[in-house]
Amino acid sequence: MTIKTSQHTQELALMAVFASAARVAVMRVFMLDPTREYYQRQIEGATGLPIRAIQRELERFTAIELLYRRVEGNRTYYKVDVLFPLFPELRSMILKMATAVERLRGQLAVDDAVLLALFDEAEGRALAVTAAGKRMGRIDPGPFALDVLPVVAFARALAEKSESVEPFLARGVDLLGRREDVIWRRIEAAGYSVDKGKGVP
Fold this sequence. Notes:
alpha/beta, Arc Repressor Mutant, subunit A, three-stranded antiparallel sheet, globular
């Protein structure tokens, strides 16, 4: 890529991001959790935008190569290209404009040890559940208290309906929305229905 082409790509990226509130809303989804891929309905649920507006913004981001697109059956998935030249700056800007809860979510989302994260707004506490044998990196929880439990300890506390996890499950929200892990089947089997946090796909 030549310098001129690179500069042109960066100019297009800046115009694509800052020209509308809808663009910023769609960008926020990808920048808060850049490790996941999303389909259009997930973005619709997270942003509250009409599906046509989402499609338009996804087309723009794909055209400037900020997003990858993958089709599986009748569903199209999008994922941010973390090697995009302006990715670090764009993510930094989104995190700076984010709420304290969103900043915490953004940190937990990129830590590969974290399986799930719950937030109890009433107590101002978050709970991160980590994969077996993995240690979480350094997290700045901001104004919140952050509890960390390995998945085995969490499963035990869940089975015992321990007070260490009960508030998060009874009145907390899911900060990451990653419901694929088997631990969510255990949460549901224990009779809990945890809502996703605001803006979480």
